[in-house]
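Honest question from a wet-lab person: if I give you the sequences of every part of a complex, can you actually get the arrangement of the whole thing, not just the pieces? Trying it with mine:
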Amino acid sequence: MAQISLTFPDGTAREYDAGVTAADIAAGISNSLAKKAISATVNDQHYDMQWPITEDAQIAIHTMKDTAQAEELVRHDCAHIMARAVQELWPDVKVTIGPVIKDGWYYDFDRTEPFSTEDLTAIEKKMKEIINKRDSVRTEIWERQRAIDFYTANDEPYKVELIESIPGDEPLRMYWHGDWQDLCRGPHLQHTGQVPGDAFKLMSVAGAYWRGDSDRAMLQRIYGVAFTGKDGLKKHLHMLEEAAKRDHRKLGKEMNLFHMQEEAPGMVFWHPNGWRIYTLLQDYMRRRQDKGGYVEVNTPQVVNRKLWEASGHWDNYQENMFIVEVDEDHAREKAVNALKPMNCPCHIQVFNQGLKSYRDLPLRMAEFGSCNRYEPSGAMHGIMRVRGFTQDDGHIFCTEAQVEEETKIFVDFLALVYKDLGFENWSVKLSTRPEKRVGSEESWDQAEEALANGIKAAGYDFEIQEGEGAFYGPKLEFVLTDAIGRDWQCGTLQIDPNLPERLDASYIGEDGARHRPLMLHRATLGSFERFIGILIEEHAGKLPFWLAPRQVVVASIVTDANDYAQEVVEALRAVGVRAEADIRNEKINYKVREHSLGKVPVILAVGMKEVEDRTVSARRLGSKQSQIVTIDEIVTELRAEALAPDLRD
RNA sequence: GCUGCUGUAGCUCAGUGGUAGAGCGCGUCAUUGGUAAUGACGAGGUCGGGAGUUCAAUUCUCCCCAGCAGCACCA
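Yes, you can. This is the full assembly:
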């Protein structure tokens, strides 16, 4: 038999027969390792203990201490164990797929009856039984047709379909533990007992379409989380609890920022506190955009269908538009209008007024544009996904040659804004040409390259989302993450040669002839609604001082200090700090507690001592300590802090 | 839009086939207190909307609306 040489992490190399498995190797090293081993990394590939190794390789054998590998295996085995538990409890349930995801796994089942909360408990119990059986995991490679015949005979139509959709005719890997069997790439643990029985939990059931296609069967998906030990699970559950406290819907209520109600689903009623944040953010963005060379415009909310027909929205986006029919007296037919779902067609109307020269390009046009989209009911989420929202929208009219430079300028701009607003972690995605698209391959090549180069020039890494671009052009997405780890696209930059064409935008070139400009759709925050939602969650409601709707409360300790409290408030207001007096007949403890819960960043307590000394006792949100300072000192300090980042020196 | 769950006082929630309860908040009074809840008393609800079953529905059934989780969607 041929010999191969395997090199271990400590650098030693050993000779083995070709086809040796990690299990053999571990057994050759020690009994305890053979028991503890869970998998191996062979030349950077994650190997099952049973897989034969046929070539010289670097090898590392893993135990549960190797968290990355262990978590992957535990979660993957949990998926299988859960599927087995479900089929043992309800033998007529059909299995489909069950991948590992962040923190856990899910598995999709086809079952007529819905899974109830009690069912989940029963499944968990059954899973623990299976784990306690310590059934060894066995794997075999099967010919494709044999696998198809097997699943056909076992009445598992989804598995048959899966195999048929796998391209090529390579043999497939089959796995067993006990009598239960699944088609799976692996790797897996050595036996079910290697899954810690106290470190997983089934979290929820929800519907999910077979193969992610809304035209196909709705399956039932069970989500679970799993870790390598029970501390991991405990930490995770605690993290979820903490995240729930940052939820912008909860904080929005607690801080009295906004509300929503049944009569206007997906529309925000901004309260004074929330609207303060909104306008501060808008003022800030306006100043930034002015400095960034944008011209601001404002365009109509209600526009006749003719424009939407010309732009293509009428044919492609109608089901997402609020349509307004007006039955005018004496009119032969009803006037049909739509609330604008996007600002771009209107911006081209502004661009089209008067002849434009190449000297006008790039022309950066901005609008805080209110849009309405009839979003599917299930898509709505707090103020992050709504039907009425305002974009910090902008369209850059430019030539192809200017795209790369404009991209870099925009990314720099966005990075500056995100930094000002306290975001360190955001990611960029480049979505490339989709299957259904317009335009030549060359123009797509050029557009994708320009975006990639622009972002690289700005100094950021990006991830490519193959085929996720708009039908008219590629796009950059700037993604922020909410409290419980859901990603939200906020900023965007999209190249669009299509709309200028459809709406006949042109400029006079150096050569005296008419040319078509390109249009770059871009937004930095995305929408104020979504961004404020993210902002609240990122800061857990404790907004930076300049954005805090209520900045200072001056709380009197005794009634005799009330006038003085009012005087301090006036001194702060005179320099533009948002201050209010709390002279209610309540104890200072009560006032401190209430305003702390209300996330007011600074509480100034004043009693008789402060009245006599002309001082305040200042307390920062989150701090247990207070500090005695003079009125002048606190006014100077807070006045500086109240400035938006772009107004500081 | 799809699957499942939920909807009771301003908020958070308990509860029942015989038209409802707590805590907080709110109002009044007392209290003048030193950095995360002072006390007493009081007001407040067609139990999401509609229909049905029943002597009787907030409770059971159906339809609708909204919210929540996930899926799909987000040119």
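Two things worth pointing out. The radius of gyration of chain A is 31 Å. The mean pLDDT of chain A is 95.
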